[in-house]
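Researcher: Next entry: Diguanylate cyclase (GGDEF) domain-containing protein (Actinoplanes regularis).
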Amino acid sequence: MVADSARLSKVRPDPSDDWNVSLPGLYATLTSLLVVTYPAWPLEQRGWPVLVVGLSPLPALLLGLRRARAGTRLAWWLLLGGTVVYDVGNVVWAWLLAESGQAVADADAIVRFTMVGGGALILAASLVVVLRRGRKDIGGIIDSVIAAIGLSGVLWNIVLYPAMTTHGMSTNQQISRLLNVFLLAGTLGALVRVSLVADRRVTSVRLLGASVAFALLDNVSAAIGTEWVNIPYMAAFVAVGCAALHPSMAEMSTPGPAPVDGLGTGRLVFLGAMLAVAPVIGGCRVMLGLPIDGVLLAISSIGMIPLVMVRIARLSNAWREAEHALQRLATSDPLTGLPNRAACVGRIEAELAAGPDDLTVLFCDLDGFKPVNDRLGHAAGDALLVGVADHLRRGLRDNDLVSRFGGDEFVIVCRGPGAADAMVDRIRTLVTRALVAGGEQVRIGISVGITSAQPSDTADAVLTRADLAMYQAKRRKRIGALSLASA
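Model: Predicted structure:
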């Protein structure tokens, strides 16, 4: 029975994904009815369902602002502002259709301005969600944006550009439409990424992505001149309202998980294809004698090349950090953070290569460590080793080395007149103080073997002499005291 419950808990969706039918479900049903019945409205009255659907997210967004946690409301404010700006244009357009059945030049300019302003605010809100939700997945988001822009370039070359050329749209109109398509596609790609890479489903993020997808579809419909152009436009408002009413809206701006950011062969091939697709299609059109859109090539290059450079820079930094981490793991003791045996031997070899003069090695072994470890436990023993390490490296000169050689053994490498005496003094102060281990104060003794390097020495020879001297010191040790021997 326990196993069945555990299995069910893994597949059961999060409670925030359940719809409260009394509010979000009712909202989605009523507004969707207006969307699907839009073509049945008389032409001069079609502005009113667009206006009603455009105004419908406003109460939902105000409710969302109240429910959102402090510090996560920027995206909702931007969504509210974008919806209000859009609705100004919707009011003007609905009034013009009702009064004259057509738009006049001045009013049409107002509508276009509100469309640009509202779209910019909605895109800004989407980017806020992407940057906050995907702050731990920047690499994956960049990949998704590159892919989305590359695919939109295919759509532009094959469908949109020929249609707009046929309809006689001006260059400025084409550039404006191209920028809209690229911005919407890139934002949609980023939202899809943060929606798919998640530790749990956040439906509000997916609904916001659906809103951007509908906006992109609206731009495509407008470019090719279909009569259904306002249906995806209205659906985008419905998706925004549903996102604000859904219980998961409070998590829309919370950071998502940090997936593994690796560029395998498959992803590299895919990204390379996305970078090359626009120039390849352009070249094919030239070979077939078809018109080519030079603006597309310029804008796609301006947008894609910086993204690729940022992606490469991030990968380079990640590889460099990984190399440093591996080097630290290979040369550091994981408990104390001191250099380990391999690093110690390498340092002695380097110092001998520079010359043996004034080079001293001290081999230290803790006396009384095993009783502490046995009586208080391994955690207390670890705490004691960390305390010894902290004491030995405090105030260490840049050219000196303290390493944990293994177990309760420490090796010190120092050079210069008086350097060995200074290290002995530091060890002497260590045995006179009490260290905390397992919640108790304990004292330890230390046996130290000291040796000076000779002209014909190897690292192994120096360490062997120091080790033998340490055992000589240990034979005459006193518990809780410092015992020294030289070789």
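Model: Note for the record: Residues 2-324 form one domain.
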